[in-house]
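hey m, so remember when u said the tokens were messed up on ur end? i reran from scratch. heres the input so u can diff it against urs
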Amino acid sequence: MYPPCGIDKARARGETWPVDPEMREALDQLGTNLRGEVRSVDAGLRDALSQVVVDLRGEVRSVDAGLRDALSQVVVDLRGETREALDRFASDLRGEIQTSAASLLQQMREMESGMRRHFDVVGESLRSDIRAIAEGMVASREQTDRRIDEQAGRSGGLEGRVVRLEVRVTDLEDGRKPRRPRRRR
């Protein structure tokens, strides 16, 4: 920066120095010339900017149309590729499902045959147990029937003896004196 000079000291005190009339005229002419040049440059810049805007709009529209076309083609291509990929995926998935289903069906058949063998063994074991129980029931029934018959025979013999005893007691009672009544206390 420049060292303070006399004009700065005067400005600090609030004073102004008179300007030389030639200098004033030269400064006024310079201001007028500068204003003209600024207006001329401004008009030129405005025209140039307007042309640039018009050109840019045209280019943007051109690029936009090109991008739309390219994007549409990309979308069509992607749809085709996506459909092909989905078809391949579906085909692969169907194959895997069919393979899994066949494997699962085979396992189920093996389990079914194993379960049948197991139930056949269990059924045979139950048959032999049921036969043994049935035979035990028949033997028990026969033994029970024999005991009932024996009891019936014994009961019949006892009945005959009881009847004979009753007859004897009646005969004895008939030959005896009647009993004295009991005293009451």
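this time it looks ok to me. The chain has one domain: 6-173. if urs says something different then somethings off w ur setup not the seq
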